[in-house]
User: What shape does this take?
Amino acid sequence: MKRRDVVKKLLSGRKDLLVIAGLGSTAWDITAAGDADTSFPMWGAMGQAAMMGLGLATAVVAKWEGALGPAQADDDEAMPVHEAPAS
Assistant: This one.
């Protein structure tokens, strides 16, 4: 089993799944799997995959909150929403 083939198979049905790859072979693997607007290879950006993931996760939560309104405490289906600290 070759890693690049496995990554290609895993990403083949991803639809709108965001994929962030760090340095080295992971970035090459997602690129070799095919170009997609939801692929984010971090070329030469050591340590930046975690920050990119945090930023994109925050944006997704904000998108859901904007579309669905604020999450209700008693709503089991609601996504968690984290408030920014007051300044």
Summary: Residues 48-68 form the longest helix (21 residues). Residues 3-54 form one domain. The chain has a mean pLDDT of 78. The longest strand covers residues 19-21.
